[in-house]
Amino acid sequence: MSALRLDGVSKRYGGRIAVDALSLVLAPGEIYALLGPNGAGKTTTVNLILGFAAADAGTIEVGGTRVDRAPLAARAKLAYLPETVMLHPALDAIENLRYFALLGGRRLGTHEARTLLTEAGLQQEAQVRRTEAYSKGMRQKVGLAIALARRAGLLLLDEPTSGLDASAANDLTRCLRTAAARGIAVLMATHDLYRVRELADRLGVLREGRLVLEQSTGSLGPAQIEALYLAELAA
Hints:
The chain is an alpha/beta fold. It has a domain of about 60 residues. About 40% of the residues lie in helices and about 25% in strands. It has a 6-stranded mixed sheet, with helices on both faces. A 4-stranded antiparallel sheet has the order 2-1-4-5. The longest helix has 16 residues. The protein is globular. About 45% of the residues are buried.
């Protein structure tokens, strides 16, 4: 069974086509990078998968569950990491993780919370500090730990490396690779062409809501990915 399947999905906002007949399949453990300029339809695609918006045509399945027929059941099979992670500023990382996990129906012990935060790349001394002074990279790591705590089969990320320094981006890459090795499929909407080669198994390029290119990254270098991307946007 696929972790994610989109079949002919379209979405309009007024007279503008945001997503146009998009078909996409992710296998368990696969990392897929969805590329495209601002307005190409990346965030709309993520919102459709989450059930935050309803498709005008086509179907979306998460782990075999139709989003339109059972939105809550479909959402329970995925985890979402937004570009900006909002945390309770008065709580430390462990408390935030345990709190958000409880909201999702899971009761985490302190040891398990520490393990998840460490796997996400957050240093142990930072785990017991209030998050009000956290950098964006530190917030991303807590957000990733929160997502992984759901034990979902699909992880959605919207511009996950935006604003991160090289060290934080490397930590994120390592954690996502570990998640994929455990069978979690990852779909990330991104502009970061360098990380695409380093992280993704496949890439797709959206232009005006249409998937104009889909290709394995195994034989491509960063310069080739950039050339392909720019060529498709200029076509």
